Amino acid sequence: MHLSKEKLAAAIRRRLLPEKAKVFRLFGREKSVHHILGGGQAANLILWRDKKISAGILVGATAIWILFEFVGYDLLPLISHGLIISLLTLFLWSKALTFINKAQPSPGYFPSYRYRPLRGFNRGFNNLWGPEHQIVTCDQRSVTIWLDSHSGWAQPSPGYFPSYRYRPLRGFNRGFNNLWGPEHQIVTGDQRSVTIWLDSHSGSGFKSIKPFRNGYFSASIKLQPGYTAGVNTAFYLSNNQVHPGFHDEVDIEFLGTTPGKPYTLQTNVYVRGSGDRRIIGREMKFHLWFDPTAGFHNYAILWNPTEIIFFVDDLPIRRYPRRNAGTYPLRPMWLYGSIWDASSWATEDGKYKADYRYQPFVARFTRFTVHGCSAFAPPRCHPVPPSGYGAGLSRQQSAAMQWAQRNYMVYNYCSDPKRDHSLTPECWS
């Protein structure tokens, strides 16, 4: 006699189960009713196995019966009133959530999605300072900057930003004329920028249309990378053409360099001095805390009757106070920009000369600001102050200047033992 697999399995189960564990089902069924009904939540509901659901159904049915039997409700009004109560509850709950969770309301207009982001960080920005503390991702979409324990190298804020206080010239030709080398000078179509260059034939220069007796003078300048030894790019005040050999001058000069070495920014003040026609330089030199060839940076001279301040990106790097009339420039001066061959002294005291295999040597100027009293202005024209507090630098500006001199100044004429300091009384007075 051969048994099917199902009957054989049933026989084995009956034999293995203890007698008390055996279940006797009506009509000899092998499966329970719960299993026949699917064994899920629906089966529990039909067989009243879930006490909570069963109680809910009984309460709901009882409430409906009371409404129909004693209140006189019909089915349609009951459904309508139930929907109204549900909608009202949802509305009140949504309003309550605004206060409970302090949910942010919608402004209705989203400008951040209206305008297209920059396609690359370098298309819109340049490093200002601390390039070793800045990383741009390969896709140019993100930049990471950080501050570490090298606090001596972290650029402080001066707290006052004159380059944003005064409006730039609307056009180069409104403030300047070509001085020499016109074929080595190009002004952009919008008159906002000028490019000058030096080659084996000539350099170039420009000069302000009118002289000034004080003022704030600035320009954003970008220098050429690579081999630039012997090249002098200058932005300065002078009256040399009116007083040759016995002139006053206030300089910002960029002294060219060799690859791998930084540019030197030289500040200088010439004064007619004691009247013996000797020109006495008052040089202070700096290596900048950024790469001046990577982008435009703002350089400025503030000159008034009591002090001269040199600025780099609004940070004061040098203050030259007036000690007496003999050591301070008081005669009107013009504003100049130029590029020329200074091989005899510019780079490491003339060790490296201009090499015209690397020509042309290019300098770009833009965002000129000329704000002050011209030589022809009435006496009521007031000098430009160096800070927001009037005369003198603020404490914050002074701290920023000390930071620049402590970390980036590489030469100070007052500290040079080879100099005759009897000719520079400001060093010891």
TrEMBL record:
Alphabetical list of Gene3D superfamilies matching this protein: 2.60.120.200
Sequence intervals crossing the membrane: 53-73
Main localisation: endoplasmic reticulum
InterPro entries the record matches: Beta-glucanase-like, Beta-glucanase/XTH, ConA-like_dom_sf, Reticulon, XET_C
Entry's Gene Ontology cellular component terms: apoplast; endoplasmic reticulum membrane
Reaction catalysis annotation: breaks a beta-(1->4) bond in the backbone of a xyloglucan and transfers the xyloglucanyl segment on to O-4 of the non-reducing terminal glucose residue of an acceptor, which can be a xyloglucan or an oligosaccharide of xyloglucan
Name under which the protein is recorded: Reticulon-like protein
Record keywords, A-Z: Disulfide bond, Endoplasmic reticulum, Glycosidase, Hydrolase, Membrane, Transferase, Transmembrane, Transmembrane helix
Molecular function in Gene Ontology: hydrolase activity, hydrolyzing O-glycosyl compounds; xyloglucan:xyloglucosyl transferase activity
Gene Ontology BP terms: glucan metabolic process
Bilayer disposition of the protein: Multi-pass membrane protein
GH16 domain ranges (all copies): 99-365
Localization of this protein: Endoplasmic reticulum membrane
Residue ranges occupied by any Reticulon domain in the UniProt entry: 42-106
